[in-house]
Amino acid sequence: MKGQKVIEVVNLFGEFHSETGSDNVSAFSIWLNRRLKAHPVEVANTGNDNRTLVWLIHRLSKMFRWYAKDILQANGISSIDEYFFLISINKIGTPSKTEVYADTITEINTGTQMMKRMIRAGLIEETADRQDKRVHRVKLTPKGKKTWENFFQQSVSDLKLKAGNLSETEKKELIRLLTYLEKFHTDIYFNDSGLSVEEMIGKHLL
């Protein structure tokens, strides 16, 4: 048993060195203390892993929005959803409004109200499509571009805090799993939204 604990400490020191490049024992003790506090030994067993998974993701989403509140307000943005609009438009270039709503998974009525507010705030500019005047395209104004850049820069510390004390290895594994879930549900959202939940289960679950 004692030998196993020594091996465990050695492995942890190797992980510490890989992450930090340091061999300092004092720094390792600080890293180890944070690591142990950040990783509770036991996880509550609810008897339903699916329910726990969804509950945790939903709760984290609310907490992350709370963390971003001050930075959003400082940049004149009402919600994180409006920031996602800026990201989407900046990424696509001059998308139609419908493309922005689809890219950010936003209901049309909600998206329309958000878009109007951001246009009035001078963050987004609206123009008619050259080929089809019925299509309204949008792009970031200089103010919108600056707002996107400011939020991006100011949220660096915020992002570190949101990632907690996960190791680099743990972050990569979590990203891998969440990427799978995101792609799984994106496929359903865009291709099978008309199906019932039971039909979705029959088609997509193994």
Which key terms come to mind for this protein?
206 residues; mainly alpha; 2 strands; globular; two-stranded antiparallel sheet
Could you please describe the fold and organization of this structure?
With 206 residues, the protein is mainly alpha-helical. The chain is built from 10 helices and 2 strands; from the N terminus they run H-H-H-H-H-H-E-E-H-H-H-H. It has a two-stranded antiparallel sheet with strand order 1-2. Helix 4 crosses helix 7 (142-154).
Secondary-structure content class: mainly alpha
Number of distinct helices: 10
Proportion of helical residues: 55-70%
Strand arrangement, major sheet: 1-2
**Average pLDDT rating:** 89
The fraction of residues in strands falls at under 5%
Shape: globular
Give the end-to-end Cα distance, rounded to a whole number of Å: 41 Å
- Count the beta strands: 2
Write down the secondary-structure element order: HHHHHHEEHHHH
Low-confidence spans: none
User: What does the largest sheet look like?
Assistant: 2 strands, antiparallel
Question: Which radius of gyration do the C-alpha atoms yield?
Answer: 22 Å
Task: Describe the secondary-structure layout.
Layout: H1 2-20, H2 25-38, H3 49-74, H4 80-92, H5 97-103, H6 108-120, E1 124-128, E2 136-140, H7 142-154, H8 156-162, H9 168-191, H10 197-204
Helix pairs in contact: 4-7, 5-6
